Amino acid sequence: MFVIVNVGTELTYHKPRHITTATYETVRGAKGACTKLNKNYGNCGQWVVMSIEDYCNAYPVKMVQKTNLMSGNTYMEAEDTPNCCSPASETYWSM
Fold first, then answer.
1. Alpha carbon of 7 to those of 52, 55, 67, 95: distances in Å?
2. Which residues contact 74 (CB under 8 A, 6 or more apart)?
3. pTM above 0.70, yes or no
């Protein structure tokens, strides 16, 4: 599996109106989509193709310290955790 990564922001490409990262089965499909993205942005080479394993090793998820809203204890949480899944948010406890 392959993904397209923005070199400047280190984020993966999401197709318009989709929540999840666009993944490609073959390197040929990923390179074709990457070429289109680079042409749309003035061929600046800002998008590159990476395998999922390489992306996970190169850009690990950062951990941040949060405080549990109910108990007041601090804990470590992935930076990209949605608000509804975080015990530090009121949304999590009201569901």
1. 15, 11, 32, 37
2. 65, 66, 67, 68
3. no
Residue 50 · residue 3 · CB < 8 Å: yes
Task: Return the amino acid letter for 51.
Answer: S
pLDDT tens across 15-43, in order? 877 777 888 999 999 999 888 888 887 65
Residue with more model confidence, 92 or 56: 92
Separation between Cα atoms, residue 45 and residue 42, nearest integer Å: 8
Asked whether residue 50 carries a pLDDT value surpassing 70, the answer given is yes
| 89 closest CA partner among 70, 74, 76, 73 | 70
DSSP state of 24: B
